[in-house]
C-alpha cells in the first residue's frame, strides 16, 4: 500500500509542475490566516522541479523495496518511517515559512536517523549514532541562524523577509547568519568540511534506504534550502558566491580522491555522492543563468543515477551477500540486467556522451569557462576523469573478470527490483532530452528563473493569495 | 526498610504516591483544558499526565502501572490522539481552509470559546501523554530483556 | 548583553561535551545542553524592557508585552529536541547491547 501512496504523490507533483506553468506562483495560506501573520505554502518553479525529482525517485525506490525488504522482519516499520521521511522532505520543499521549514527538516532528519539504524547490525548502529549526533549539531546551527534572522527582521515568512532585506539592505548580522547557515545546511548537504558523517551513514543501511538517503535527502534538505535562503531571502553577493564555489570545488576533488582507494562498493558510492554534490554547488554558486541551469540539471541527474547505483549495489548484495569488491567477480554472466544498468549508470556519472551526466557536466564546465573561472573548470575536468577511473575499477571487479566457483548459483534479482532498476536506467538514457527546447522551457527554466529572480521572491507574496 | 522480593520503593514513597498521583493527573488535565486562556496547552499538560503514570510505575513497580494503563492501551491512545488531530484539521478543510477555526467562538476568557483550539489541545495531550509513557516503558523494558538474557 | 554571552558559553559547554567526552551517555547529555542553550537564547531575544507577560486578561492593559511568537516556536523546538533525545538514547542502549561498552574509542568498526 505504501507504493500507492508514492505513486499518488508522484502524480500530484506532475500536476504541480503543470499548474505552475499555467498560473505562475501559487500561494496557499494555512487556516485562512493572511500572511505575514500566518503560515503559507508556496509553490513556484524551483519547488515544482524539486518536487517532481523527489517524488519520481522515491516512487521507483519504493517499487524496489517491495522485493528487497522481504528479508527483513518488520516491513511495516520500514514503510511508515519511509513515508514519514518523504512527508518531511516534501514539506521542506513546499514551506514558505522559515520555521515551518525547520520543523519539516527535523521530521525528515529524525526519520532518517531511525532508518539508518534499521537492520540493527553492529556497524549500522554505530553509523546511525554518529550521523544522529552530527545531524543534531547541524540543526542547532540552523536554529541559531533562524533566531538571528527573526530578531533582525521580526518576521518568519520568507517572502516578507525578502522584502525586508530589500528595503533595509544587509546589516552587520547578515555575514554571521550566512556563516551559520553554510555550516548548518552544509552539514545536511555534506559539503566538504562537514562531510564526515556521510561515509559511515550511507553504506550501512539496507540498499533502498541508502538510495533514498543519498539520492534525495542530502539534496532536498541541504542544497534546496541553501539555494532558497541564499538566493531568495538574504541575497547573494560576489563574496558569498565565491565561498560557495570554493566549497563546491573542494568537495568535488576531495570526494573523488578519497573514493578511488575504497574497496567497499557502497562506501565508494558514498564518497562519490560528496563529489557530485560539489558539482551541483559549484554550478549553482556561479550565479550565471547557464551555471544555475547546469547545477539544477546535475541535481536531477544525480538523483537518478546515484539511486540507480545504490540499487545495483543492493542487488549485488541481495544475490551474493557481500559488498567487498575483491570478493566478487564476473557477475555479468549471471545478472545481465543488473550489469547493464550498472554500466549505464557508471557511464552517466563519469560523463560519457550521450548519457545525461555528460550534458549536465558539460554545461557546468562551459559556464565556469564563460565566467572566466578557468581554475574551477580545470578542477571539474580532473574530478570527472578520476570518477571515470574509479567506476571502471568497480565494473572490472564486480562484473567482468573470471566468474568464481562460489558464485555459480547466483540468479537474477526478483521482478520488482528489475523493474525499478530498468526504469531508472531508461531515465538515465533519455535524460539529455530534458534540454531540448519545449521540455526545457516547461521544466527547468522556471526553476532557473526563480533563483535568478533573487529577492523579487518577496514581491509575489502580496499578489496572489488563495 | 524494604523486605526482599517486594517491588518498588520504600513505604514512605508509596504512601505519598498514593495520595498525590491523582492530584498530578488532575493538574495535567487542568492545564490542558485551560490552554487557551492561560499558559500551558496540549504539550505541557500531556507531559504532566504522562508523569503521573511514570510516577506510579517508579513507586510501585511495573505491574501496578500496567493495571492502570497497559502497553496496548498506551499505543491505542497515541494513535487516537494523532488521528483526532488530523480529523479536526481536515474538517476545517470542508469549511474553507485547512485548519480553519470553524466552531463558534464564544466570548473571550470563557472555558468554551476559541473554536477548535481546546479540541486540538485535548488531542495533542492524548498523543503526548501516551507517547511519553510508551517511550519510557519501551526503554525500561528493553533493559530488563537484555539483563534477563545474560 | 551579558545574558546572550552566557547563553553562548552554555552552548560551547555542550559542544565541548560532544567533542571531547568518551562515554556515549555524556555525549548525549552534551547534545541536550546545547539544545537547551539555543532554546534559552531564542526566548531571551524576545524580551522587551519592562514588558509584561503576553496574556490577555479582563481589565488588563495591552501595551508593552514581551514577544509571544518565540515562545510558541520554542515549544515546538523543545518537542523536537525531546524526539531526537529519545532516539539517541534508544540507539545508545542498542549499541551497549551489541558492543558491550559505552566507550566510543572502542566502537570504531567503520574506518577508512
Secondary structure: elements and pairs:
The complex is a heterotrimer of chains A (466), B (150) and C (112).
Chain A: H1 2-23, E1 26-29, E2 40-43, H2 45-68, H3 75-94, H4 98-116, H5 122-153, H6 158-168, H7 173-189, H8 198-201, H9 207-234, H10 238-260, H11 265-286, H12 289-320, H13 336-350, H14 356-370, H15 374-398, H16 415-430, H17 437-443, H18 445-453
Antiparallel strand pairs in A: 1-2
Helix pairs in contact in A: 1-2, 2-3, 2-9, 2-12, 2-16, 2-18, 3-4, 3-9, 4-5, 4-9, 5-7, 6-9, 7-9, 9-11, 9-12, 9-18, 10-11, 10-15, 11-12, 11-14, 11-15, 12-13, 12-14, 12-16, 12-18, 13-15, 13-16, 14-15
Chain B: H1 11-33, H2 42-60, H3 62-68, H4 71-94, H5 117-149
Chain C: H1 2-20, H2 24-44, H3 69-99
How would you sum up this structure, described in words?
Chain A has helices at residues 2-23, 45-68, 75-94, 98-116, 122-153, 158-168, 173-189, 198-201, 207-234, 238-260, 265-286, 289-320, 336-350, 356-370, 374-398, 415-430, 437-443, 445-453, and strands at residues 26-29, 40-43. Chain A has two domains: 1-235 and 436-466, no CATH class; 246-435, no CATH class. The longest helix of chain A has 32 residues, at 122-153. Chain A is built from 18 helices and two strands. By secondary structure, chain B is mainly α. Chain B has one domain. Chain B is built from five helices and no strands. The longest helix of chain C has 31 residues, at 69-99. Chain C has helices at residues 2-20, 24-44, 69-99. Chain C starts with a helix and ends in a 13-residue tail after the last helix. With 112 residues, chain C is an all-alpha fold. Chain C is elongated. Helix content of chain C is 63%, strand content 0%. Chains in contact: A-B, A-C, B-C. At the A-C interface, helix 4 and helix 5 of A face helix 1, helix 2 and helix 3 of C.
